[in-house]
Amino acid sequence: MRWSRRKFFTLKNQAIQSERTMTYRLYNRTGSGGFVVEAALALAEAPFELVALDSKPGTPLPDSFRETNPWGQVPTLVLPDGSIMTETAAILIHLAACHPGKSLAPAPGTSAHAAFLRWIVFTNVNVYEAVLRVAYPHRFTSDPNATEATRTAAVTRMGEALGVLENAFGPGPFLLGDALGVVDVYIAMLCIWFRGDIEAPRLEGLTEGVRQNSIVGPIWRRHFGDR
């Protein structure tokens, strides 16, 4: 069966258009990392159902949730076609691609988009991972005497990674320029989880810009209050 290039892109565009108009389902719990996915869906003006799981961050999710996500973590996003996405950075990249007119990220193929991919993956691998080591040290060491050392090393590493982001800013108030994007919302969330002390005025400004955004701000306050 032969596919023309035009037919391929027609089907791809039809799939993206369908995803823009149908409903997502987001599984999350208040105060968890799914905040940034909820914010991205709101910025995209995408209809979605929020399923709030009745548990606190840092505690196990119900075993029954593993039927939805075998890894037992949030956020978990059910796409309009019923398929399931996990991994925060991957979800954000996908939503930005499905809603290109909402400026969640720079246009693909540009150097700005390359920077977006670079920093969202950097943030996920180095900053979010350090947050998990602080919250769940037992996942990273089998030595019960190493719990606090694991947490201390994670805080140090997170501070170093945030320092790299602080120095990566261009001329705008946000990481990639003047416009708020999902990478900024992601970074702001992680900044308030940092337990160390660094000089990062640009990250502080970015975080305040996210807090004050008319769309993201109310979601922020529901998840994090005045933090």
Which key phrases capture this entry?
227 residues, alpha+beta, Glutaredoxin, Glutathione S-transferase Yfyf (Class Pi), Chain A, domain 2, 2 domains, 8 helices, 4 strands
Characterization of the model:
The structure is a single chain. With 227 residues, the chain is α+β, with helices and mostly antiparallel strands. The protein folds into 2 domains: 5-102, Glutaredoxin; 111-213, Glutathione S-transferase Yfyf (Class Pi), Chain A, domain 2. Helices cover 51% and strands 7% of the residues. It is built from 8 helices and 4 strands, in the order αβαβββαααααα. It has helices at residues 5-21, 34-43, 88-98, 111-135, 147-166, 182-192, 201-212, 216-224, and strands spanning 24-28, 48-52, 76-78, 84-86. The chain has a 4-stranded mixed β-sheet, with helices on one face. Helix 4 (111-135) runs antiparallel to helix 5, helix 4 (111-135) runs parallel beside helix 6 (182-192) and helix 6 (182-192) crosses helix 7 (201-212). The longest helix is centred in the middle third of the chain and has 25 residues, at 111-135. The radius of gyration is 18 Å and the shape is globular. The model has no long low-confidence stretch (mean pLDDT 90).
Question: Layout of helices and strands, plus pairs?
Answer:
Layout: H1 5-21, E1 24-28, H2 34-43, E2 48-52, E3 76-78, E4 84-86, H3 88-98, H4 111-135, H5 147-166, H6 182-192, H7 201-212, H8 216-224
Parallel strand pairs: 1-2
Antiparallel strand pairs: 1-3, 3-4
Helix pairs in contact: 2-3, 2-6, 2-8, 4-5, 4-6, 6-7
